[in-house]
Amino acid sequence: QLKLVESGGGLVLAGGSLRLSCAASGRTSSNLPTGWFRQAPGKEREFVAAIDWNGGATLYADSVKGRFAISRDNAKNTVSLQMNSLKPEDTAIYYCAADYGPSAGRRVVDYNYWGQGTQVTVSS
Questions:
Q1: Where are the beta strands (DSSP E) in 26-116?
Q2: Buried-state track 68-96, b at ≥16 Cβ within 10 A, e below 16
Q3: For residues 84 and 92, is the Cβ–Cβ distance under 8 A?
Q4: How many angstroms from the chain centroid is the CA of residue 77?
Q5: DSSP 3-state of 63
Q6: Continuous segment of H or E residues that includes residue 25
Q7: From CA 26, how far away is CA 6, in angstroms rounded?
Q8: Rounded to an integer, what distance in angstroms lies between the CA atom of residue 72 and that of residue 52?
Q9: What is the structure's pLDDT at 123?
């Protein structure tokens, strides 16, 4: 079974930065695309960024493009999300997601394995 654990969330002022990490354990492989999603209270879960586990191709939501950067460390089975120039509208629970396959996707249905989430709060 694949297990994902997020860390790095917290409270930050607008304009600040946070770095989230997602640690994968269990049935990991070189074909494990991973994504970051977020969900604010009362809203749908939305796509943030994704990366192919073994290839380096990345995807970003328009709302975070140029501010967030996703990266991977296959030796540690981790995926990170560097978040810069944070805005209050970035406030949400951030989830790491993964699935077995050749490429990353932008939809919730593209992933079957999810972490518990980590809270990010951006104050103005």
A1: 34-39, 46-51, 58-60, 68-73, 78-83, 92-98, 113-114
A2: bbbebeeeebbbbbebeebeeebbbbbbb
A3: no
A4: 14
A5: coil
A6: strand 18-25
A7: 15
A8: 9
A9: 98
User: Which residue shows structure tokens 């999300």?
Assistant: 81
Length of the chain: 124
Using pLDDT thresholds of 50, 70 and 90, give the confidence band for residue 30.
Answer: low
Q: Could you identify the residue written with the tokens 């995807």?
A: 59
Long-range Cβ contact pairs of 41-46 (< 8 A, separation 24 or more)? 43/92, 45/95, 45/108
Q: What does the alpha-carbon distance between residue 4 and residue 22 come to, in Å, rounded to a whole number?
A: 6
Local structure of residue 30 (DSSP, 8 states): S
Query: Which of 100, 116, 117, 99 has its CA nearest to residue 108?
Result: 99
Phi and psi based region of residue 63 (left: phi greater than 0; alpha: psi -120 to 50; beta: remaining): alpha
Q: Measuring CA to CA, which residue among 6, 5, 4 is closest to residue 119?
A: 6
- Looking at residue 32, what is its pLDDT? 84
Largest CA distance in the chain: 41
